[in-house]
Specification:
Radius of gyration: 22 Å
CATH class of the largest domain: Mainly Alpha
Shape: elongated
Distance between the termini: 51 Å
Number of strands: 0
CATH architecture of the largest domain: Orthogonal Bundle
Structural class: mainly alpha
CATH topology of the largest domain: Tetracycline Repressor, domain 2
Largest sheet: none
Order of helices and strands: HHHHHHHHHHHH
């Protein structure tokens, strides 16, 4: 199992775990840290399986709670079975980290924060910007249409953001605790902020390669935040309603294209499509 040791988990989980040292990657007792992370990874994998329909658990076993301490403990035991050193992931170890009547609520808070920084989401956040930066030189040479590139990346990002929104809707439905909800919402905002930050240099490089400029008042930061908010809104709507039709995705892609083109200044009272076509020609 790989955990992101660059994150200071003891600080991230501080108020939601009995002893922050149990989540410290630098803890001399590596097994204590691995135990903590195994519980969180088990919870994340269980949610993933239930959302994707891969879960083998019956409705009676889930009993409406969908994520119980017993389910997490059993899943964690399966995760650590092949490790070369002993890792104790029984119910006692779970209660040691998240004790008392509020133990599961605190576990959910840690699970939300863990989800935000899980390596798989880092790969998701990096895909779009990395792909666009690689393809922009082809756009500037006229080998690839800018609209086609936007369509490809926007469709991918929407699909991944729908999955992310389903994670959040799932986990928020596990409890109505106001404090936990605030933690989840804050963590979600932090993840979207990270998404926007990654796109700033992409828009700046696009302006340079295409010899274009933004309209007055528009910056790479502002456009990045606007596209992120638009994607998030579509994703949450689709995740909440389950209405994932092809024509809705096409409408979303067109809205992203329109937003990007509207942010560009064509100059000389021309349309942005004509201006870009002239630049690339």
């Amino acid at each position: 199992m790989y955990f992101n040791d660059e994150v200071d988990w003891s600080e991230v989980f501080r108020e939601h775990i009995s002893r922050p040292s149990l989540a410290d990657p630098r803890n001399p007792r590596r097994s204590a840290y691995v135990t903590t992370m195994a519980f969180l990874e088990a919870g994340l994998q269980e949610i993933d399986d239930q959302l994707s329909g891969r879960s083998h658990r019956s409705r009676d076993e889930l009993a409406g709670a969908r994520l119980t301490r017993d389910i997490v403990v059993r899943r964690a035991a399966a995760l650590v079975a092949g490790l070369p050193f002993a890792v104790h992931v029984g119910e006692g170890a779970f209660k040691d980290r998240w004790p008392g009547n509020g133990g599961m609520a605190n576990f959910f808070m840690c699970l939300i924060k863990y989800t935000c920084t899980a390596p798989r989401w880092g790969l998701f956040l990096d895909y779009g910007p990395r792909r666009v930066l690689a393809e922009l030189p082809r756009v500037s040479k006229g080998e690839l249409d800018l609209t086609d590139l936007i369509t490809k990346i926007a469709t991918h990002d929407l699909r991944m953001r729908i999955r992310l929104a389903r994670y959040w809707l799932f986990q928020l439905s596990l409890t109505i605790d106001a404090k936990w909800r605030a933690v989840a919402t804050k963590a979600y905002r932090e993840l979207l902020e990270a998404y926007s930050t990654r796109w700033e240099p992409v828009y700046e490089e696009g302006l340079r390669l295409l010899a274009a400029r933004f309209r007055p008042g528009i910056t790479a930061r502002k456009l990045s935040s606007m596209v992120s908010a638009q994607t998030s809104g579509f994703a949450q709507h689709i995740a909440g309603t389950g209405d994932d039709r092809r024509d809705d995705q096409d409408l979303f892609v067109m809205s992203v294209q329109a937003l990007i083109y509207a942010a560009l200044d064509p100059g000389d009272e021309r349309g942005i499509t004509d201006a870009l076509r002239e630049i690339l020609a």
